[in-house]
Amino acid sequence: MTRIVCAQLAPRLGDLAGNQALTVAAVRRAADGGARVVVLPELATSGYVFETSEQARRVAVTPEHPLFARWASAARGAVVVGGFCELGADGHLYNSAAVVDRTGVLAVYRKTHLWDREKTVFTPGRDQPPVVRTQAGRIGVLICYDLEFPEMPRSMVLRGADLIAAPVNWPLVPRPAGERAPEIVLAMAAARANRVFVACCDRSGVERGVRWTEGTAVISHEGWVLGEPDADGVAAADIDLELARDKSLTAHADLLADRRPEMYSALTSATVHTGTVPHACAWSPRSR
């Protein structure tokens, strides 16, 4: 079994040193508790609600920054997936996540789908999200809003992901009493539709008037929530990642083998269809 821990934290906007200490302590606690994979929130090293790109630039770091070596040391052999504000070699800012193990930074993913005012600060990533082979298993990485595009988790599963680790910052939105946050529902659907484990690590607290959902969850390959935050903000679950490699639903149904890619060409089209869609079925009531 592989112990997955999501450490829900409340980073402080613009406090790189304080957030570094906060994340390192969280990774160390998770490792002490037997974690093999530790997931931290989106932009855990910087905070989120930037007013200007200049403000973000002051706390942006490169993947060579010493904080990642500190994550690696604190993890004691575990894999860490955590969000950070990246200063690219091209001078652009990226909302990124690093995958770190004892050897250092294994991969960096730059968020592809920027949410709302993120577009005024960050440049969207242009590279496919990674699926990283680690000692814990095959880990895919998405960030927050990426999960709301079904093509993203499906593409990772087609490339062999056992677990999708998703640093997130989900602003609190109204919902009916007793219902889960809509973002969690979407993550559960992605897990079930792809038979893949999903670990979403949200943040807590209030930042410049924005209150967060605190929707951290570890979700099974069948779409059920296995772990939610305790009083310390830690969500944990012990899972068998190899279960995600079996995509069969019944003796005659398989999530991947039953795909019909030739029917999905519109998914890769840049054209957005709006308004009335012409009836394209071979049969209609009028043909009777």
What does this structure look like?
With 288 residues, the chain is α/β, with parallel strands linked by helices. The chain is built from 5 helices and 16 strands. The protein has helices at 16-32, 53-57, 66-75, 151-158, 182-194, and strands spanning 2-7, 37-39, 79-87, 93-101, 104-110, 131-133, 138-141, 163-167, 197-201, 206-207, 210-211, 217-219, 225-227, 234-239, 248-250, 253-254. A 6-stranded mixed beta sheet has the order 5-4-3-2-1-14. Strands 6-7-8-9-12-13 form a 6-stranded mixed beta sheet, with helices on one face. The termini are far apart.
Short description:
This protein is of the alpha/beta class and 288 residues long. It is 18% helix and 25% strand. It is built from five helices and 16 strands.
Order of helices and strands: EHEHHEEEEEHEHEEEEEEEE
User: Structural class from helices and strands?
Assistant: alpha/beta
Poorly predicted sequence stretches spanning 5 or more consecutive residues = 283-288
Number of strands: 16
Can you give keywords for this protein?
5 helices, about 290 residues, alpha/beta, hydrolase, C-N_Hydrolase_sf, about 20% helix, disordered C terminus, Aliph_Amidase/BUP, N-carbamoylputrescine amidase activity, UPF0012_CS, six-stranded mixed sheet, Nitrilase/N-carbamoyl-D-aminoacid amidohydrolase
